[in-house]
Design brief:
The chain is α/β, with parallel strands linked by helices and 383 residues long. The protein has 3 domains: 80 residues; 112 residues, no CATH class; 166 residues, 3-Layer(aba) Sandwich (Rossmann fold), CATH 3.40.50.10140. It has 13 helices and 8 strands. The longest helix is centred in the C-terminal third of the chain and has 18 residues. It is globular and about 65 Å long.
């Protein structure tokens, strides 16, 4: 490590001279070799360090010395010089009384009617999570939160894998964690290695990702994925890209956007470019599909016209989505009969069929592939 992470952030911001997101800062830090990240979720680490030194952001673990300021939604800029900001005086957490059910925000109350977690709960799952975090007084892992909720009998779980339900609820309401079924109202933030804590107050942060279909119910996916991984040593750990070779140039561009996730080992990408000469390619494709957690489909007229894709790749992927919660991410490459194709039309694409990739500007095209990478990262974000 050449310099501290805060110094690396300040150096990049000074060089760029314009507001940046934690993700943009992370990529620039890595590109310039300013800091060696070891965390599994380095982007959250960058975001956490920025907020701890951000003007107007106040919590017990934040620092008085402020180097940054928030500019717009999830963008930050370097202050002209460091500013000392006295911290807010906090009430002792043991005396904090959680809000009543009637005072809870609409998205909190909606958790009570969640079919995955209905039952004679004493309060919503979000209120239960917030109460144990405040009582604990410092960041907690998902397992610690679940254990505290159960020991204090704050919520009645019915799910067979309740820890995964707690994880999904924290993730859905976690600041700077964006994925297709995330909730706009954020109550928590990541505080280092797989630990979370309550924000000083709820923050609205609108998702920049499309809602990608009915198979993105995180509670159901968590339940199914936990069952798969406990029942079978072969867990689903791959990103499978299904495409027509006539669309290879778009596959190559997607590779570029996925590289920052592959390099630190956050994802294991698979497509037919991984098949070595002389290999039993049908077996390799079959094995890759069996280990797929996220399937990206680069859909075009050529894709839909491919008998091999439609007969050999698409059916097992759709079956896995139905039975095992595999996430399907369609990307519309060119005008085609996507909306009229049985089996895939029910999955909402990352981009509208009316705005296919070939008709987008370079900027819009790059933003789309970035959103695809974001959705994949979110699907693999776990304890």
């Amino acid at each position: 490590m050449k310099i501290t992470i805060v110094e690396a952030i300040r150096q990049v911001m000074k060089t760029e001279g314009e507001p940046m997101t934690p993700r943009e800062l992370y990529y620039r830090i890595v590109q310039e070799g300013l800091y060696d990240f070891e965390a599994k979720d380095p982007i959250s680490v960058v975001g956490s360090q920025i907020r701890k030194h951000c003007l107007g952001k106040d919590a017990k673990s934040y620092y008085e010395s402020k180097f940054f300021k928030a500019v717009g939604e999830n963008r930050f800029q370097l202050l002209p010089g460091p500013i000392n900001e006295s911290p807010t005086e906090y009430i002792e957490e043991d005396n904090v009384e959680p809000p009543s059910e009637d005072q809870a925000a609409p998205d909190q109350r909606s958790d009570k009617s969640d079919p995955q977690e209905s039952g004679p709960a004493k309060k919503t799952i979000i209120l239960a999570i917030k109460e144990v975090m405040l009582s604990h007084g410092k960041p907690m892992t998902v397992q610690q939160v679940y254990d505290a909720i159960v020991s204090r009998d704050l919520y009645s779980f019915k799910a067979s894998q309740p820890v995964h339900v707690v994880r999904s609820q924290i993730r859905r309401h976690c600041f700077d964690v964006d994925f297709p079924s995330a909730v706009d109202l954020k109550h928590f933030e990541n505080r280092g290695k797989h630990k979370y804590y309550v924000l000083p107050k709820p923050v609205k942060q609108k998702s920049k990702l499309s809602k990608v279909g009915a198979n993105t119910d995180v509670e159901k996916i968590a339940e199914k994925q936990a069952h798969i991984e406990s029942a079978d040593k072969t867990s689903r750990d791959k990103v499978f890209i299904c495409y027509s070779r006539k669309d290879s140039k778009w596959l190559q561009r997607l590779h570029v956007h996925l590289k920052p996730l592959e390099k630190p080992g956050m994802i294991d990408r698979w497509d037919d470019t991984r098949i070595k000469p002389g290999a039993k390619w049908r077996n390799e494709i079959k094995e890759a599909i069996e280990r797929t957690r996220v399937a990206i489909m680069l859909i075009s007229a050529d894709f839909l016209a491919s008998e091999f894709i439609m007969d050999n790749e698409l059916p097992p992927l759709l079956q896995a989505a139905e039975s095992d919660g595999v996430m399907i991410l369609p990307v519309i490459i060119s005008p085609c009969r996507f909306k009229k194709t049985e089996g895939i039309h029910q999955y909402q694409a990352m981009n509208s069929p009316e705005t296919p990739v070939i008709g987008l500007s370079i900027k819009k095209r790059e933003e789309l592939f970035l959103h695809v990478a974001d959705a994949i990262e979110a699907a693999f974000y776990h304890e």
